[in-house]
Hints:
The chain is α+β, with helices and mostly antiparallel strands. The protein folds into two domains: 7-98, CATH 2.40.50.140; 119-420, Bira Bifunctional Protein, Domain 2 (BirA Bifunctional Protein, domain 2, 2-Layer Sandwich). It is 30% helix and 28% strand. Strands 6, 10, 11, 12, 13, 14, 15, 16 and 17 form a nine-stranded mixed β-sheet that branches. Strands 1-2-3-5-4 form a five-stranded mixed β-barrel. It has a three-stranded antiparallel β-sheet with strand order 7-9-8, with no helix packed on it. The chain starts with 16 loop residues before the first strand and ends in a 20-residue tail after the last helix. The structure holds one RNA strand.
Amino acid sequence: MKPEIYIKDLKNHAGETVTLKGWLYNxxxxxxxxxxxxxxxxxxxxxxxxxxxxxxxxxxxTADLTQEASFEVTGTIRAEERAMGGVEMDVxxxxxxxxxxxxxxxxxxxxxxxxxxxxxxxxxxxxxxxVMRIRHRIVKAIRDFFDERGFTLFDPPIITPNAVExxxxxxxxxxxxxxxxYLSQSGQLYAEAGAMALGKVYTFGPTFRAEKxxxxxxxxxxxxxxxxxxxxxxxxxxxxxEEFLEYIVQSVLKDxxxxxxxxxxxxxxxxxxxxxxxRISYDEAVKILKKKGHDFQYGDDFGAPDExxxxxxxxxxxxxxxxxxxxxxxxxxxxxxxPELALAVDVIAPEGYGEIIGGSQxxxxxxxLLERIKEHDLPQEFFEWYLDLRRYGSVPHSGFGLxxxxxxxxxxxLDHLREAIPFARMIYRNTP
RNA sequence: UCCACGAUAGCUCAAUAGGUAGAGCAUGCGGCUGUUAACCGCAGGGUUGUAGGUUCGAGUCCUACUCGUGGAGCCA
Length: 432
């Protein structure tokens, strides 16, 4: 039977007698007085058990209640300054539903390996619940943003016959009589087909990278949202990315501030995420690095430490555009003013969180695209369908990809991507 | 793949110069009518990651391996 009421809704129910269901977050006792902290997924509530006001039997049962045991509890809700959340319950009745013997996560410090081994239980703790609620709010903001602007959700395949970008390593799997298939590392090429059909589309789903990356910024399975728009040039693309990030951050601030505070996030820093964001060219970014005395070779891509240095002078994300074409993907359009440069943009999050968006205007001329495919040594036969998009009514178009976990990590102020997703998949971990 | 660091009680850590492995939390028992990671008392709990070596003696020094951590590269 479902609960009649949840903790988050109790504030306006002072004086009422209610029955709640949930799990024991923690307890404290003091002789004939016991404090049970109930967790029901919406909040925490202190339930007070006086020996004098419950039966001998009920009082005895509360002694057996252990951390994370499930129980139902009946009592009167009362405003109480001393309790967290401003209300507490005077218990009159109580039943244990499911025992919990030797719960491994104690209200004390634990190391990351231990907590990741117990991830399925770690998710029950206050901060992890806050992260999951913020992740959910971000996902909703992403969907709302595109839905409100005439985009159509367009789901690309996850099983694909070849590399989209040719660079990263892919997870492979045998596929019946067709040889090896690969898990998608990006839905972008398919999104381009969608944009030619529907004008403005976005993909949103998991992607897979078999790179042997071992850093706090990498997962092998992560979620990415990729809008793709017909007739958008690079400037239009950057306008959209900027508005998009502002929308996401402000939505979280509006609805999930409580969770940000639980995470001890510096909310003021997020409040500064307002348009316009600085837009600097690759050339200007290199000058900034050199001016700050960093050893950097013109023509290289920026590494994580370079990104941090470029971003550190700004309160907002920074957009870096027009990269050397040699370090970027084959499908990016060249800058008509300098064919050595690609019409690409990376958006660097503040506070050292690094690249959260990568985008570009796409090459729309078939001859140039054919050249690029040859230069990158890609098998043309796999790209025939993609080339058709240029053969039949090609138009300028652009798009970008936003890494969901990196965005969650930045907004929550996490120090590792593994906490930004319920069950992280990393090079040395695929459990639980 | 490379670099750096780490592995001691269920968990987080300590152990001075190589000399009998300790504490807090958790667990069990007892006490307490306002606790906020409650507190107080008592108790149980260890093949110091694995294998080998040096030494009268190794948690500590040496070698190899395993596992982990985060950084480079790569990327979102």
